[in-house]
Amino acid sequence: MEGNRILLEDTPASTATHASIHAPKKAARFYRPELDVLRLVAFFTVFMCHALPFDDAKHANSGRAWQALQTFREAGNFGVCLFFLLSSYLITELLRREVLETRSVHLQAFYVRRSLRIWPLYFTVLLAVACLGLFWPALRMPIPQFLAYLLFAGNWYDIFGAATHNPLSWLWSISVEEQFYVIWPSMAKLGGLRAIKIGSLVCLPLALIAIALVDRFQTHPNVAVWLNGVVQFQFFAWGALLAILLAGRIPSFSSATRAAMLAGGAVCWLTASGVCHLKKANFDPGSLRLCIGYELVAVGCVCFFLAALGASVAKLPQFCVYLGKVSYGLYVFHELALTAATAVRQQIEQSLALGGRATSLLFVADRTLGLLFTILAASLSYKFLETPFLKLKNKFTFVGSRPV
Fold first, then answer.
1. pLDDT computed for residue 379 by the predictor
2. Helical axes 327-352 vs 318-325, angle rounded to 10°
3. Which helix (H) or strand (E) holds 38?
4. Low-confidence winner among 11-20, 140-149, 189-198, 224-233 (lowest mean pLDDT)
């Protein structure tokens, strides 16, 4: 289609008034493979953030190239925000279609589906790390910290528990996601899309208020703001608002417009990182810069989302679609894989007394090996651990989504 005109796809509707939770009537499947590719992009930005060398004391006076690398690396954190927006958009859209098909939101079915999707891998890794921590000090964590992550309150523990060592630090986002699941479907059940819309609009100023309060009362505000669920809920809010505004419609943009939105999203993220310093270690950017920075991150997420939604499926590399499909496993395993690869590299460096260029080449090999380990672990997990549970979801599904 020419130009930037928007295509309006009919939203499936049904006159059905009842559906059993055990044998639901299936509506038309809602699955957008281009969003799986966007999931992969979100994961890869997070991976690069954790894989690239980071700022420390010995690099304090490094040149512009190093500072540019740090700006790029720190911007990778915002892939988590993109994950939140994507999750909210998809869940809100599926809930909207479920109401159209069955005239209700089935809370029990929703929570069963989410539990079958998130819990098997999450609890397997949590318990595995807890057991390994008995023998490997790097993976050891206090019992209160373990219990907090067990109860999906890991982000709040890390804020108020003053955790100095956390072998599961990257899984704080799973806690935030689960907190979102507790609230959103209940709002849809009680007040429909109007409640979701109002709740989303309330989340936006609440996030800014939370940023200002945290900046005033917390010792390390940039860390406390980042982990704060109230702040991060703004990205869920944007995803929900996009689902409500689009109402099943898929925009058709020209390739040039999509490229411009991708570039705009990247500029927003890099500005939030390099100018507002949202994720710069041991640095207090102040309330104003924090607020502006988080809004830039939100605008960037929306740009990336709109650039991807409706992109030609025929042009999507199938291996990217697959990796997006297993992106949950990629995210869960990547830090463990990087930790293992780093341990191997350090042993080699010590035994061979390497230095200079050899050390740099070994570092690149280490990061590459970490990525390969991550992909292998995620693929095996998806096939042998997650898939059996995902197949059980069909018994509690009213609107089909991604095929297993």
1. 98
2. 90
3. helix 33-51
4. 11-20
How is residue 196 written in tokens?
Answer: 């979701």
**Encoded tokens for 253:** 């943009």
State which amino acid sits at residue 237: A
Task: Determine the Cα–Cα distance for residues 92 and 243; give it in Å rounded to an integer.
Answer: 6
Tell me the sheet residues that pair with 321: none
For the whole model, what pTM was predicted?
0.91
CA nearest neighbour of 231 among 182, 277, 165, 297: 297
Each domain of the chain, given as residue ranges in start order, spans 41-51+63-396
Integer Cα distance of 398 and 101 in angstroms: 8
Q: What is residue 161's DSSP assignment?
A: S
Cβ atoms 129, 167 nearer than 8 A: yes
Query: Considering just the CA atoms, what is the radius of gyration of the chain in Å?
Result: 22
| Alpha helices (H) along 76-132 | 79-102, 107-132
Q: Both tokens of residue 398? A: 């009213």
Spatial neighbors of 205 by CB under 8 A, at least 6 apart, are none
